[in-house]
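SAMPLE LOG
Freezer: B-3
Tube label: C17
Construct: single chain, 446 aa
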Amino acid sequence: MEKTINMIGTIAFCLALFLAAGCGPKKIADNRGEFYITSKPDAAKIIINNREIGLTPKSVRIPPGTYIMEVVKLHYKSDWRKLVSNTGDKKNIEIDLSPITSSVLLESTPDGAIVEVEGNLVGQTPKILHGQTTGKHSARLSKPGFITQEITWNVEDARPQSVSAILFSNMGILEIRSVPDNANVFLDGKPRGKTPFSEKIEQGEHKIRVELKGYNSHEENVVVIKEEKKSISVTLQLLPGNLNVTTNPPGASVTLNDRPYKNSPVEIKDLQPGDYKLKVEKEGCDPIEKNIRVTAGETSDVRIILDSNWGGIDLVANPPGVTIYVDGKKLGVSAEGEDKLTSKIFEIRNLSSQEHMIRIAHKRAVPAEKEIKVKVEKGQIARPKPINMWIADRYVKLKNGREMRGKIRQENALEIILEQPDGGGIIAQRYGRNEIETTRELTENE
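STRUCTURE (predicted):
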C-alpha cells in the first residue's frame, strides 16, 4: 500500500515538474497503414482478424503487421486476403466477388418436353442447367399433346438439385362424319384424312373444312375439350352440273328426259347430278338416243355425229366392257345392261350397204378377239346374234401365295370352282375356302 502511494506521488511530482517547466505533452506519431477497400458489388462486409470493420467501400487504418481479411456478401462467395500493413502505407484493394451458383436438373414425365427459360429455348427434358445463381428461378415446359407447365425452384447455396414435373394431356377426340362419306378433312388448313374421321387433337378452337368433289364444301370452327369427344356431322350439298350438246350437222332438236331444249348447239345449265336420257333428232338422219351422266360441279361436253338414213347394226357384245371395231375402226365399248354379264345394245349407224367386219376385243378375254361378218341393207338395221367372250373378272390369292385371275363358275360357303385360261382354252378347278386368302373383282385396269 505504501509502495503504491509512493508511485502515485512520484508520477504527480513529475507531472507537476513538467508543467512548471512550461511545456505541454508531446504528440505521438501515427504509424498505421491505410487501406481503401472496394468491392463489386459494393456493400460487402469487411472482417479483419475476425473483427467486423464496416461495409465496402471503406478506408481502413491499421497498425503495422500482418492481418487476415474476409469480404462477405450474401449470395456471393467470401473473398479472403492477407493484409500486410507497413508504416505510412497507402493501398487500394479492389475485390470482385463471385456469385454463388448451382446446377439444376429439370425432368418431366413424359420426358422430351421443350424447356424455355426467359423466352429462350435451351433444350429438352431431362436438361441440366448450370450457373444457377441464388434466388428463385423458373422454366416453361411444353410438349405437343400436353398442357404447358411452368416450374420454379430456389437456389440457396451451391448444392445441385433436381426439379420434376408431371405433364398432363390436353388431347380430346374429334370425330367428323359426312353424308356422303369419303370426303377430305382439313384441320386448321392442313389435310388430315377422309370421313369418317376420328383423331386425338389438342384442346382449343380449331377450324375444320370438309370437301368432296361435286359438293359444296363445309367449314366451321369447333372447340375440343381435353379428355372429351367432339362429334361433328356434315351433310354435303350436291353442286349442279351443266351439259353442252353439239351435233354434226348442227341444228338438231335436243330432248333431255323428254324435255325439249333449243336446237344444237345448246348449253343446258343447273342440272341435278345423275343419269339422263338424251335424244337428238334431225330430218334425214337417224335419231340418236343415249344415256349420259351429269357430274356434280362439272360441265359435260357431248358431241354427236348424226348418221344419214343408211343401214346400221344393233350389236350385243357380252360381257360389258368389250371394245367394238367395225371394219378396223374402233367405235366404243359395250355398256352394262340389266346385270354385269349382259351388255346393252351397241348401236352402229351410217353403214354402207355391204358386208362389214365386226371385231370385238378385251385384254383379259380368251381368245382375246372374235370376228364376225354382218351384211347391212340400206335403211335396215341388222341384228346379229350376241357375241359372247370369256373374260376373267375375279382375282383369287391362295394362302400358299399363288395368285390367279379367272371367273367363278360356282361357289358356296365351303368352296369355289374357278375357271382359268390354259393354253388357249379354259379349265375349271375347285378350291376350298380354307385354301383361299382373298378374292375380289378385278378392276378395269387389271
